[in-house]
Amino acid sequence: MQLLWESIKHLYALLAVIPVVPFLLVYFGLGAYTGNRKKAFRTAMDVTTVLLIGCVAVLFNDIFDSSFGLYGIVLILLLGGGLLGNVQYRMRGMIDVKRIVRAIWRLGFFLMSVFYFILMCIGIGKSFFMV
């Protein structure tokens, strides 16, 4: 059981280091399998978001010598969901949780992509100038 858990952790770490690779693998693989490029793009975004959240959390913790990275990301996603739910309730009078979760998850992809790029540049610069 320990070997399986370690293998999963190493595979996740390997895929999360460069999240463009799993995105492209899922996009082209699912696109070729189903023929639906739009659905393949959405699925690739959803899969890559999981990897980006973990990677951005680790980068944040490493750069700022903190342990708040994952908690901060979850807090931002929950606050965004609450704000979006409030807007939806005021406009429609009801809340569609599935739509809110999907919207926050997809917005999280773009937000985590930007944070990944910024934090990766800071991390590379920090390690380059520390030598």
Description:
- The protein has helices at 2-17, 20-34, 37-64, 69-92, 97-130.
- The protein is an all-alpha fold.
- It has one domain (2-130).
- The model has no long low-confidence stretch (mean pLDDT 92).
- Helix 3 (37-64) packs across helix 4 (69-92) and helix 4 (69-92) runs antiparallel to helix 5.
- It contains five helices and no strands.
- The termini are far apart.
- It is 89% helix and 0% strand.
What key attributes describe this structure?
single chain; 131 residues; mainly alpha; globular
Query: What is the alpha-carbon Rg in Å?
Result: 17 Å
Distance between the termini: 40 Å
Mean pLDDT score: 92
Helix content: over 70%
Strand content: under 5%
Largest sheet: none
> Which structural class best describes the helix and strand composition?
mainly alpha
Total helices: the number is 5
Question: Would you report the number of β strands?
Answer: 0
Count the domains: 1
**H/E element string?**
HHHHH
Low-confidence stretches: none
What shape does the CA trace take? globular
Structure in a nutshell:
The protein has helices at residues 2-17, 20-34, 37-64, 69-92, 97-130. It is mainly alpha-helical.
What is the topology?
Elements: H1 2-17, H2 20-34, H3 37-64, H4 69-92, H5 97-130
InterPro entries: DUF3397
Transmembrane segments: 12-33, 45-64, 70-87, 107-129
Protein name: DUF3397 domain-containing protein
